[in-house]
Write a structure and sequence with these properties.
With 165 residues, the chain is an all-alpha fold. It has seven helices and no strands.
Length: 165
């Protein structure tokens, strides 16, 4: 048995994973909290992305908007991450074989790399384009990538429940 499958099988069988899976209320409650965390996370990211695309808040400096939403973004991330781990614990063995779960994990890696690259490159010069209605091409590309990747994560996340491998 591959080590990752062994870990997923163990996690699935833990009293913690079993309790969430078998409870009438735990899984749906955690899933609701997970959805709310995603809403805050993706909502705040989308506002910044749409500003980078010049579609909203054109009079607001990108850096100011970023500073205003980043605490909410990190809060949404924390809620989404913790609740996602709880959901995973209850379905770890099944998710190991789920194609949509694997795609979602790949998209999560890519969506994590996107802001790291953006902040290490394009955002470093934000002071030169902070008020521009048309931001640099790389900023717009990062915004489009972000919106597409988050959309893919949401879609594959929903499809996990309907895929039977």
């Amino acid at each position: 048995m591959p080590p990752l499958l062994k870990f997923c099988t163990w996690l699935y069988a833990t009293p913690f994973g079993t309790a969430i899976r078998e409870s009438n209320y735990a899984f749906p409650l955690i899933e609701t909290v997970h959805t709310l965390g995603i809403m805050v996370l993706v909502g705040t990211i989308a506002v910044v992305d749409l500003r980078l695309l010049g579609l909203v808040l054109r009079d607001t400096p990108v850096s100011r908007l970023y500073r205003q939403v980043i605490p909410w973004t990190w809060g949404g991330f924390a809620v989404m991450f913790i609740s996602g781990l709880l959901l995973f614990a209850s379905e770890a063995r099944d998710n190991y074989f789920n194609t949509f779960f694997r795609i979602k994990l790949l998209l999560l890696i890519l969506v994590a790399l996107n802001p790291l690259i953006f902040h290490a490159t394009t955002y470093r010069t934000v002071s030169t384009w902070d008020l521009a209605n048309i931001t640099p091409r790389r900023a717009r590309l990062a915004a489009i990538s972000s919106l597409c990747l988050w959309g893919g994560i949401i879609v594959t996340g929903r499809l996990i429940a309907y895929a039977h491998n």
